[in-house]
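How a chain folds remains the central question behind the approach discussed here. For one protein, we set the task of working out the structure tokens from the amino acid sequence alone. The sequence in question and its structure tokens are set out directly beneath this paragraph.

_____
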Amino acid sequence: MVNATQDTGSAAALINSLNAVNSSVGKKTAATDPNSASAQQDKFLTLLVTQMKNQDPLNPMDNAQVTSQMAQLSTVGGIEKMNTTLKALSDSLTMSQSMSATNMIGHGVLVPGSAISLANGQSIGGVDLTQPADSLKVTIQDAAGKTVRTLQLGAQKAGVAPFAWDGKTDAGTVAADGSYKFTAEAVLANNKIDAATLAFGMVNAVTPGAQGATLDVGKLGGFALSDVKQVM
């Protein structure tokens, strides 16, 4: 027969050791959140000690059972600590991303959009191609939807293809400064392929957020860092 006093003493020593390590953290967490893993750990240890004190000496608790319960409790505590560490790491990365994004203030970027602004005979836009194109055509239209200029950009590699518009119309006249819009058409082996239009804007400010930094790109609006296809 297993000696009840010896088993109880060994298990109690293990419990006291665990309590010594986790007492300060457990008490603090339990005081603030009774449903936290640390609070549940304290409850479990209290119940276990009470159970051991009132057990039948002729039928003591099995050491293997106590060890198994301790292992499960340790796993729960480890998961809680891992979640805390991951959250701290995520917050740190988000802040680091926001700080890095501030370096983009005052720089021009290409982001999803079809708006194009003409000022002093200068305008910039872009097209994002998922694959190479044998030919790429950009059509610029005024507010009424009338075609002002058609740009034949020729063959292009996959990726971002920026372009500049000098403000000239197809008729050779100079277009008025203002806001226009454009479309893009790409062809590969006589088949149309995806061609996403990109608008140009200046980054005015960066706003940190839980989901990452948001770039203020003037009239174009707010964009996530992942929306930026190219920094000019």
Residues 4-102 form one domain.
